[in-house]
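Q: Now give one record:
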Amino acid sequence: MDPVARNSIMKIAFLTFSLLISSYTYSQKEVKASDILDKVASTNNGYKTIKVDYKFTSKNAQEEQSHVESGKILMKGDKYHLTLTNSDIIFDGKSIYTYLNQANEINITKPEPSKVEKGEFFFSNPRDIFKGYNKNFKSTLLKETNVNNILYYEIDLVPIDLKTKYTRLKMLVQKTTYQIKDIKLFLKDGTQFILEFSNFSPNTELPDKEFVFDSKKYPNAEVNDMRF
């Protein structure tokens, strides 16, 4: 065989082999990420209660200053109690009670279906943040990273529905516990949301009264019942 032709064949074979290896490696990373996210969901859904502190940061592309809120999440079964800087939200299993401090009003609404696929989880239902992601996202394991001597998986998630308001999510998951350290959401308009979690306490004894809205605490608040 002509040496030039032989060299060309060898180059093509090498290139083909390299592409196959690259494709296989990428596919393995996708499978690994999917397995990790399934483990995150099964681990968290297995807890009877969850108590965790959080910090929520929003960065608007048009504004230099970031907006930061912090609070606590309590969850027991399907019920939750979410405290924010200027509001208090309780879902008692039937209705959602939201007290807005600045307006001094109480809004009562019915729960809506999960909005994970629209990028509106957490504040619409904080339980969604700990549930599965494989249904609505294509995930890839980017790398393992060390933060303060703790190993984490760094996972990239791209929404399957391209009509969502965001382009991608990035998540850090602790390697040994499968707990979420933080989630970064990148919106199409350039806005970024960052959710950071700390002091995660599963299966803590939480009294039922934590999930019952006590209107007596706000005797002068305006009540808006929107349960139609």
Notes: Confidence is low (pLDDT under 50) at residues 3-27.
